[in-house]
């Protein structure tokens, strides 16, 4: 038997647990999404306006922190164990990090859910971006930190496996999937420095009452230090599926293994020193620093464009192996009847569309047009909400049998599900973009004000609102189908046998063609650190020198603390 | 619902390959075509952006 679950039952258990946690969060987040989509368009308002932010926080946190990260740690565990072909070094440690993540989730979730009732003082209506001046109950931040520590230990676990493998295979190239996991985790370690510093040094002491105030701009900047690269933490696992699973599903081989490695190294280098592009309209950061962030962002388009080429070329290879011909005729020879393939391909298509709105977001001048409008959620429902979420859901149709040993309930039902998600997002995403161009704000329960009208270039506001509501409903139907289907497959209701197809075919251009220096992860991490220092040292120093670590009003604790830390910043600057 | 036989195989490597194509015989001109189309669309959208945002001369958000 070739199935992962038969070869590595204990690791498969962790993967299943992580996926179950992930889909639970997706389900909860989806229901909140429906409430938002209907509420702010005026079609159905079942919560009070004052509760809207509790709903929105739950939606954001469930979707982008829990659903995505639980899924990817499960997927990475499979990728490392399977590609290195070795068990976890110590399965108790593997369980430890998973349960740390769960403990953190329980704490943060309790704080958010407390916002729905007046019975407790638990509350965390701070949205998933949680920077000051919004303030949550301390348990929310403690939960987040615990969750992130869990992911750090997961990385340690995988590095231990990799190091042990290297000892036994001197001089060999790291298998592609393990290489991708290691570069992604290194990126994650660098990225989370920002959020850890923001919470541990400033927001948590403030929420505990140890200090009176914080420097909001500093916590915002530290948040976005993390807030941009976190999108690559979601995206890189999706890319990994496009590189290693999608070609196989199409009946082809990955076009180039070295190119895939280069892409992941580029993400490690460039993901972090771009965060300031979320702060183009923030006063208090000089234009020059924003310009540097913009330049880095435009460079960061490169690995995504390389990916577009490699992944499409790999699919085309599959189509031609299956008899496809012609300039575009080969598209017909792709296995469109398989939900895993179709879902991922459509996710990639949405990502191409999101590339355009992303370029608008990234431009310093055009950003002013769409900043804080519904255009922005429109953009990221195409990226994380579809390119990532749909890829994760679709891949589950291939992945689930590997880790449960049961076949998928029905391919046709799966196909309907992925098509509905795509359709729902066409409506919702398109309308959100257009209504954002007309100026309608995001994060608003009632975006209607006396005396304010929004001018649309094409179509009316009420028509666009209708499309948002319709899209939300279609997406929710798709989500419910997914959950039901997952349940039926997981518990093997149809007793379908699991296909014995866990082997990933070799790349057309193999790892032996990659320059050896790509393996030198120390070097790439060091360069990434230098780039981060170059882009962040000066802006951070100027934010601190303008208003101090804790804002203008100091406290005894705060001042003592500043006294201890500021020499360090002096050195860095 | 559907039968087990339909679900058994989720990928095309199981018996659907007609000809194996190696590295040297493969010329991805279909990919070139698709990416070319994408670049044309992006370029046109940028031109369109110019008309929407700059020639309209309306007040922008913020
Ligand atoms: C059932 C499907 C979904 C629906 C109906 C939906 C709907 C919405 C709506 C209407 C908003 C805007 C709320 C506002 O700004 O007032 C929103 C925000 C958001 N959505 Fe979704 N969404 C869905 C799925 C997803 C998925 C799959 C993800 C990510 C994996 C996601 C991530 C987010 C994030 C990060 C926000 C921003 C929250 C904030 O502003 O703090 N959504 N969603
Ligand atoms: Cu960003």
Proportion of helical residues of chain A: 55-70%
Radius of gyration of chain B, in angstroms, nearest whole number: 23 Å
What would you give as the CATH superfamily of chain A?
A: Cytochrome c oxidase-like, subunit I domain
Order of helices and strands of chain A: HHHHHHHHHHHHHHHHHH
The DSSP helix count of chain A reads 18
Report on the architecture of this protein.
With 573 residues, chain A is mainly α. Chain A has a single domain, classed as Cytochrome C Oxidase, Chain A (Up-down Bundle). Chain A is 70% helix and 0% strand. Chain A is built from 18 helices and no strands. With 62 residues, chain B is mainly alpha-helical. Chain B has a domain at 26-57. Helices cover 52% and strands 0% of the residues of chain B. Chain B is built from two helices and no strands. Chain B is elongated. The structure holds protoporphyrin IX containing FE and copper (II) ion (CU). Copper (II) ion binds at residues 228, 231, 277-278 of chain A.
